[in-house]
Amino acid sequence: MSGSEIVAPERGGITRPDRKPRPRPPLLETPAFAKLNLTLAVGSRRGDGFHDLRSIFLRVGLSDRLVVALRGEIEGDVGPDTLEVRGDPRCPVEDNLVLRAAALLRAGTRGPLPPLAFRLEKAIPVGAGLGGGSSDAAAALELAGRAWALAHAPAEVLELAARLGSDVPFFAMDVPAALVEGRGENVTPLPAVRGRLGVLLVTPPARLSTGAVFAAFDKLGPSGDTAARMTRRLADALSRGMDAPQLVDEAASLRRANDLWPAATQLQPELEGLRDELEDLLERPMLLSGSGPTLFALYPSRVDAANAARALTGRSRPRSMGAFIASTDLTVPDRPWSRR
Ligand code: C5P
User: Fold this and answer.
1) Ligand 1 atom closest to Cα of 183?
2) What is the pTM assigned to this prediction?
């Protein structure tokens, strides 16, 4: 996942060589973490085309990195914001949420703002159910706000985040875990699980479009209330305080707590076989994250998850071949970096 470099085409930036160059401003940067859905209960389609959700989101250690600098070395530079993406040729550039986040902030601000140069280093697979693009968008809102010294109230940032995508408010809240409801904009923070946990991620090479999975969900008809019940139960348990081994013990029941599983497997039937194969090999329940296709398993430590990842990459089983396989920390300690 390295070496490829895509640079958004410039759209007629104006430079003024007659002006005195000013020193290059410092780079600002932040990690943009992935998320997992421990549960995902989906209601029916609403009038606005979205579905009411109830989901437990967890921030996990796998992260992209977003860097930004003010692009204008010359006073008065009015060129466009730019984005360079490294690490994943599948990641869109021109309509990337990073540029849309900056454009949204710019549109809501009076007066000119200097152009920004973003660099996005991708590690989270695209279209995988891990929220990578949404996390990048939240990171862009933060960094652009800091670069332009804007002072938005947290509620304003959340409102902008919701306009960028349903998962973006969770990332803009910058919390380790949350109950996420509504379209995705109602985020109730939950405490992190106590103790260290590891997670194994397996993302098949064929990716899934979130919109297509929700459309398949509509055609399949309503699901039962297992996911909704599990979500309520887990939210209660987490808010009372949950230890890592307790969560690992819940994995077998959480496996049934994603309402999008039937829709995801209808669009990608091989996901069913992959899950069976991984469960046989690893002797662990495999859960679907979001609209998929990433499957994940919980481990009592990062080392255990890393060993499982190594065991899989060593194999030449046809089903897991070509998959993105990674292990990471399930709980991300509160940051030494500060987004708020
Ligand atoms: O908000 P986002 O751009 O991530 O959503 C992508 C698509 O997923 C939407 O266009 C919609 O079809 C579907 N979706 C939904 N209900 C949600 C979130 C997403 O139907 N709560």
Assistant:
1) 21
2) 0.89
Q: Is 167 a catalytic residue?
A: yes
Burial classification of residue 101, based on how many CB atoms lie within 10 Å of its CB (0-12 exposed, 13-18 middle, 19 or more buried): buried
Per residue in 230-262, pLDDT (tens digit) is 999 999 999 999 999 999 999 999 999 999 999
Query: Which residue of 42, 44, 51, 126 sits with most ligand 1 atoms within 8 Å of its CB, as the best mutation to test the pocket?
Result: 51
Which residues surround ligand 1 with Cβ inside 6 Å?
A: 50-51, 53, 165-167, 183-184, 210-211, 214
Distance in Å, CA 212 to ligand 1 centroid: 9
Q: What is the overall mean pLDDT for the chain?
A: 88
Structure tokens at 104: 């949204």
The answer for residues whose C-beta is within 8 angstroms of residue 288's C-beta and 6 or more apart is: 129, 258, 260, 261, 264, 271, 275, 294, 295
CB 301 within 8 A of CB 199: no
Q: How far apart are CA 186 and CA 162, in angstroms?
A: 10
